[in-house]
Amino acid sequence: MLSKLWILAYRDLGRNRRRTILSMVAVALGLGLLILMNGYIAGIMDESIQNNIRLNTGHLQIRADSYTEGEMSLAWPDLLRDPEVLAAHAATLPGVSGAAPVLWAGGVIATPNDSLGIQVTGIDTTSSIYDPIRAALVGGVFLNADDRTGIMIGRGLAEELGLAVGSDVSLTVVDSDGNADEGVFTVRGLFHTGIPTYDRGSVLMPLSKAQAFARTERRASAIIIMLNENQALESVRSALRSPDLQLLSWEDMNRLFLETMQTGLAFYYILDGIVMLIVAVIIANTLLMSVFERIREMGILSALGMKGRHLTQMLLLEAACMGLVGIALGLVLGLGGVAYLTYVGISIGDIASVAGDSIALGSTIHARFVPETFAGLSIATFIFVLLAALYPAWYAARLEPVVALRG
Fold first, then answer.
1. 65-71 long-range contacts, CB within 8 A, separation 24+
2. Tens of pLDDT along 180-234?
3. Pairing verdict, β 115-123 and 202-206
4. Quick check: 73 and 91 in contact, CB under 8 A?
């Protein structure tokens, strides 16, 4: 019986090919849009977190128990006393690809014509942690550990202040004693990471010079640790745990962004549901119109002994055919769009800087392939299509043969 119902369903879909094709296209466009949108959102989340990890936070940070990131305190009790020893110990642990001390200080960079608030970062210039900065170098040279007057700045900051490699600038920081210290430095190199907030707001200098400039002796704000794989995070944290230290994972340091995105995802789930409902209404309308056009035929089939459940199955098979073909086309469209955005991306320019320091968006945003999400959307779309067919199927199944034969 099922094979005969398949034949009837296939024949009925071919009666009004234009309507059937348009219904399939509606399913394809709806699913394609959902795949593209979810791939793009996944790309925004993943890129922002990865950018923040490689340029700012690392996978794990060691800080003094009293240190608060937002304040960038230079008070000695808030800093790590033996950062080199801690970094050397962390670097020997399994799963660690690099560990280096860093010193952060708020400051002002000034030229004769302009001044801007920036973050001064003292870095271990020999550490592999700063390979992304080396790769992003677009002018000049990378810093040497013994350079006492050199700094590196982002190309965006250089353009804003009219600076170039070799330019002299004035830097001012409030040191560990609470006094404003000013020094003249020379721009040794320019980098362009593609992250506007980083390229316009960071000044890098050798760690030893930053410590002397801020009068912190050999203390550091934190130890940044990069891992070979995220699975090693808990074992490394356990090995480094100490009562007077705080160990923060990348999730801890990106919690605000992650919570914001999770809240925003609720809106996208609602949008997904709305798109699927629109597709379901189109399918229901198509099948209902088909039922109205075939009332006499269904009356004849009922008079010949076809049960109501068979009519229901026939219409469900029609919906399944339209749904499966539409889903196949939607996967082609959606995955094609995600592939384009993954390799080419969408340029948003300086709009990324509006997101703030906590969201490290690049000037170009790429999508991401999320197979489990795409599979879930496809299954949900198919379920919505079948649910949409239930009312037309119920309507057809309850038709009385005599009434149906009258049309």
1. 65/243, 65/244, 65/245, 65/246, 67/221, 67/222, 67/246, 69/253
2. 889 999 999 999 888 888 888 899 999 999 999 999 988 999 999 999 988 888 9
3. parallel
4. no
Mean pLDDT lowest for which of 80-84, 128-132, 162-166, 300-304? 300-304
Query: For the CA atoms of 138, 143, 147, 148, what is the dihedral angle to 10 degrees?
Result: 70
Predicted pLDDT of residue 45: 84
Asked if residues 326 and 24 have their Cβ atoms less than 8 Å apart, the reply is: yes
Any alpha helices (H) in 71-230, and if so which ranges? 83-91, 131-135, 155-161, 196-199, 207-213
Element (H, E) at 222: strand 222-227
Cα 85–chain centre separation: 35
* Backbone dihedral region for residue 356 (phi beyond 0: left; psi -120 to 50: alpha; all else: beta): left
- Which tokens is 133 given? 């900065």
What CA–CA distance (Å, rounded) separates 407 from 403? 7
125 by DSSP, 3-state: which?
A: coil
The reported pTM is 0.77
Residue ranges covered by each domain of the chain: 2-52+257-405, 66-242
pLDDT at 398 (0 to 100): 66
260 vs 140: CA distance, rounded Å: 38
Q: Are 28 and 330 in contact (CB under 8 A)?
A: yes
- In whole angstroms, what is the distance from residue 344 CA to residue 365 CA? 9
Cα 87 to the chain's mean position, in Å?
Answer: 30
Beta bridge partners of 353: none
- What does the pLDDT read at residue 164? 92
Write the CA distances from 54 to 96, 227, 261, 366, integer angstroms: 14, 11, 20, 17
- What is the β-pairing status of strands 222-227 and 245-249? unpaired
CB 221 within 8 A of CB 57: no
- Sort strands 150-154 and 364-365 into parallel, antiparallel or unpaired: unpaired
pLDDT of residue 265: 77
Instruction: Read off the pLDDT of residues 314-368 as tens digits, 9 standing for 90 and up.
Output: 778 878 888 888 999 999 999 999 999 888 877 766 554 545 455 566 667 788 8
**% of the chain with per-residue pLDDT over 90:** 35
Quickly tell me which residue has 């170009």 as its tokens: 364
CA distance 253 to 263: 18
